[in-house]
Each structure stands twice: as structure tokens, then as C-alpha cells.
Amino acid sequence: QVQLVESGGGLVQAGGSLKLSCAPSGSIFSALFMGWYRQAPGKQREVVAGITSGGTTNYVDSVKGRFTISRDNAKNTWYLQMNSLKAEDTAVYYCNLLTSKGWVRTDYWGQGTQVTVSS
Q1: Radius of gyration of the chain from its Cα atoms, rounded to whole angstroms
Q2: What is the torsional sign of CA 68, 91, 86, 58?
């Protein structure tokens, strides 16, 4: 079974940068959507950024201008570049992949990577 492998989390000071990456462990069918979510302690998981198969990107308002989602189609890998990090960005970040095969949609999730921003 395909799993998503994340990397890149860690501890950083406010104002610093981190880059997360996510890649499937095996072959996947047509990718419809690649995204990043996060969940802070005591809060619900929220979408942070997403990129469609057509290359359209979207961001939650709180990260616009600071985070950039991108993908490398040849490597089936996507990234989240996080700049100007704030304490409120502290959370576990999860990558997400939605694929299609015919009419069947499959949703994959990464294991989560901790991002901690110290103020």
C-alpha cells in the first residue's frame, strides 16, 4: 500500500524558514490534488495550502505571502516552503494526496511532521 513520506520539520526561531517535502512510497495513479494541512494542540486540522493537477495553488489567508507550495512532477514530490515563520505556525503538518483511477478517488495522508516556531 502506498504511503506518503514527509520530511523537513523541526525547530526554528520566529522569522526563520523551513521546507517540508512529501513523496509517495510507491507508484500512484493520476494525482488530482496535493496539499498540506496542519493541526495545532487543541485545534482542528486545517488546510494550509494546496496545488491541483493543473497547477492552481491556494492558501489559507494566514500563510499567504509567507508559504509557497510547489511540486516536482518528475519525482512525484511536493513541497511547502515556509518563510517568516511565526509562533502560531507551530503545529503538526500533514501532507495529503488525492488520486483518481476511473471513478475511484483515493485519499492519502502523511504521518505528520512537527514544526515548532520559538518566539
Answers
A1: 14
A2: positive
C-alpha cell at 65: 505571502
Cell of 104: 475511484
C-alpha cell at 71: 511540486
Question: pLDDT truncated to tens, each residue of the chain (119 aa)?
Answer: 889 999 999 999 999 999 999 999 988 878 899 999 999 999 999 999 999 999 999 999 999 999 999 999 888 899 999 999 999 999 999 999 999 988 999 999 999 999 999 98
CA pair distance 65, 86, nearest whole angstrom: 13
**Interatomic CA distance for residues 21 and 79, integer angstroms:** 4
Amino acid at 20: L
Place of cell 517540508: 20
What whole-number distance in Å separates Cα of residue 55 and Cα of residue 69?
10
